[in-house]
Design brief:
The complex is a heterodimer of chains A (302) and B (291).
Chain A (H helix, E strand, L loop, with lengths): L2 E3 L13 H6 L21 E3 L17 H23 L9 H9 L7 H16 L11 H11 L2 H14 L4 E8 L19 E8 L10 E7 L6 H4 L3 H12 L2 H35 L1 H15 L1
Antiparallel strand pairs in A: 1-2, 3-4, 3-5
Chain B lengths: L36 E3 L5 E3 L21 H25 L8 H9 L7 H16 L11 H11 L2 H13 L5 E8 L4 E8 L10 E7 L6 H5 L10 H11 L5 H15 L2 H11 L14
Antiparallel strand pairs in B: 1-2, 3-4, 3-5
Helix pairs in contact in B: 1-3, 2-3, 5-8
Classes of the chains: A mainly alpha (302), B alpha+beta (291).
């Protein structure tokens, strides 16, 4: 989700902008959008906007009703965005991207007040983009290969995902994520410390938490807060999850997110390799200095 | 509190099972799980008790227009019933938990903060029983007698207490409950908010009022109108109009909490609970014997 100047009109619900445009929001990690103009001009305050889902609100009928969208997107999601804007105005969070705000306010689990709104705003945008009219079916290509490799089969993956979503007690989300990080993550403790790197994992999170805080790359999510399914399914969460998997999931979106995640992981590895080489060179260059230090302490001891 | 038969609305099989066992006669819990009867050595069948769905102490349409019949049918008949069924299913697998009272079950499964899988559903069964009893038709207004005195002593005034209660409700994020409790150690009233299924029993406090803040508790009434009641009262019509405007979703919760405090909460029941609590907590001045 990109931060845009507050001078633009608030987003009304426009006709489907097309899938390519929504891909833009999938490259969420690339650049920090700095909205500071040249010296002397007024600094533009970044303000998050509520973007519409990439399809009309009745496009997912009968699996997800228009009424649900009107409340879920039109009230809940809108409230998160508006409240977030109110909370960050004038603070040091004001110029950050949404992802950075989430990471900063997660604060290793000791949540700061803007976290809930920021994370929920991000989660919901991600959720709308995880669905499409005429969705469902099976993934293909590299995504299917990875699913088969990491879960055994597509059916086994679906079963595990459904179980995770159904057993998230209370409010929360279930995620398919790409895990490519090393074991020591900067912002929080890693919940899967013994897993190998670089694999697909299913995680479930409570309330507003999302896998970004563990440095995973989310690929797919389902909202299991009650407001997501109560109007259409009442208490039958399992039915909602099944319908989501069979009729709503946009595997194209998941595949392109996977590509982006792998590209980012590769870039990071190169970066780390480069840094490690630089450090090694420094260490080797610094050897003589180190020996002198050792000698001087010996002489002091005498 | 859980040994009751189901109402006909609930279609669960738990309605067939009645609690007839004498607790003291339940043998060591290494028994066959899932059997309704077990032949002992003398041939007398022993019935193992399951938990049942308790009906609210009023008809399902009695809380109209503040909580609709439809809302109760879904909340009690589907959600609460679902918790009871899930609990019975889980208890079938674990005979160590058999025969506990609901309070014991909650404390045991809470496991000092590392809850067992049964905790969520067990606590939700108890919580909902407590919630239905915390409301009554024609509720709201003010507490009386000793409870009012205690509220005034611990919160300054009833208005202040009400404000704090509503504020706590609105600042709870995610699913959970709001409680007015009597804190045993400090011997004073407190407002507690808990997440998901947690309730004050696990800290050994005594709850007096409970308010369900899971979204399923207010989503139907404060999100959509339904055709069940064609004659809308002025109040419900007003609430309906409110929901049509693009307000923050927080306002739905605020409406629900305000309606609960003004029209639903049963201070009589709270007074009764407080009276019972005084058997366990001495709220008076300590009597220091003079030699």
């Amino acid at each position: 989700m990109a931060a845009t100047p507050s001078a633009t009109l608030p987003s009304t619900f426009l006709p489907c902008p097309g899938f390519r445009e929504s891909c833009r929001t999938l490259n969420w990690r690339t650049h920090k959008k700095q909205l500071v103009r040249k010296a002397g001009a007024v600094k533009v305050r970044a303000k998050f906007e509520l973007e519409p889902p990439p399809y009309p609100m009745n496009a997912l009928e009968p699996h997800m009703s228009r009424t649900t969208f009107e409340y879920h997107w039109g009230k809940h999601h809108r409230a998160y965005v508006d409240n977030l804007n109110k909370q960050i105005v004038g603070t040091e969070l004001d110029d950050l991207t949404l992802e950075d705000i989430i990471l900063v306010t997660y604060n290793r689990g000791d949540l700061l007040p803007p976290f809930n709104n920021a994370a929920q705003a991000w989660n919901h945008q991600f959720f709308w983009e995880s669905m499409k009219p005429g969705g469902g079916g099976k993934p293909s290509g590299e995504l299917l290969e990875l699913i088969n490799r990491d879960f055994g089969s597509f059916e086994a993956f679906v079963k595990e995902f459904k179980t995770a979503a159904a057993t998230q007690f209370g409010s929360g989300w279930a995620w398919l994520a790409y895990k490519a990080n090393r074991l020591d993550v900067g912002n929080a403790s890693n919940p899967h410390p013994s897993d190998e790197d670089k694999k697909l994992v299913i995680v479930k999170t409570a309330n507003a938490v999302n896998p970004l805080v563990w440095d995973y790359s989310p690929l797919l999510t389902i909202d299991v807060w009650e407001h997501a399914y109560h109007l259409d399914f009442r208490s039958r969460r399992a039915e909602y999850i099944s319908i989501f998997m069979e009729k709503l999931v946009s595997w194209e979106a998941v595949s392109s997110r996977l590509e982006a995640a792998k590209a980012q992981a590769a870039e990071r590895e190169k970066e780390e390799e480069r840094k490690r080489r630089e450090e090694e060179e420094e260490y080797q260059a610094g050897d003589e200095v180190r020996e002198m230090y050792v000698e001087s302490t010996d002489s002091e001891a005498e | 509190m859980s040994w009751c038969c189901c109402n006909s609305v609930c279609t669960s099989s738990s309605r067939q099972l009645l609690a007839t066992s004498d607790l003291s006669s339940i043998p060591s819990r290494v028994s066959n799980v899932g059997l309704k009867q077990k032949r002992s050595l003398c041939g007398v069948p022993k019935v193992f008790a399951y938990y049942g769905l308790k009906t609210p102490p009023y008809k399902l349409d009695a809380l109209e227009p503040y909580m609709s019949q439809k809302m109760l049918e879904v909340h009690w008949g589907e959600h609460h019933c679902g918790y009871v069924e899930a609990l019975n299913k889980q208890l079938e697998k674990n005979d160590m938990l058999y025969g506990c009272t609901m309070d014991e079950l909650i404390k045991v499964t809470y496991n000092n903060g590392n809850p067992l899988p049964e905790f969520g559903v067990a606590a939700q069964v108890w919580n909902h029983d407590f919630f239905w009893e915390s409301m009554k038709p024609g509720g709201g207004d003010m507490p009386k007698l000793g409870l009012l005195q205690l509220i005034e002593k611990d919160f300054g005034s009833f208005t202040n207490f009400k404000e704090k209660f509503i504020e706590a409700a609105l600042t709870l994020f995610g699913s959970g409950w709001i409680w007015l409790v009597l804190n045993r150690e400090e011997k004073r009233l407190a407002i507690i908010k808990t997440s998901n299924a947690v309730n004050p029993l696990v800290w050994n406090d005594i709850p007096l009022i409970g308010l369900d803040l899971w979204e399923h508790a207010y989503y139907l009434d404060y999100k959509v109108t339904h055709s069940s009641s064609f004659l809308l009262s002025a109040k419900r019509f007003f609430l309906m109009c409110l929901s049509l405007f693009p307000l923050f979703s927080q306002n739905d919760k605020a409406n629900y909490v305000n309606v609960f405090m003004n029209h639903l909460v049963s201070w009589d029941v709270a007074l009764g609970r407080m009276a019972r609590a005084q058997a366990f907590v001495n709220l008076g001045e300590p009597k220091i014997p003079v030699a």
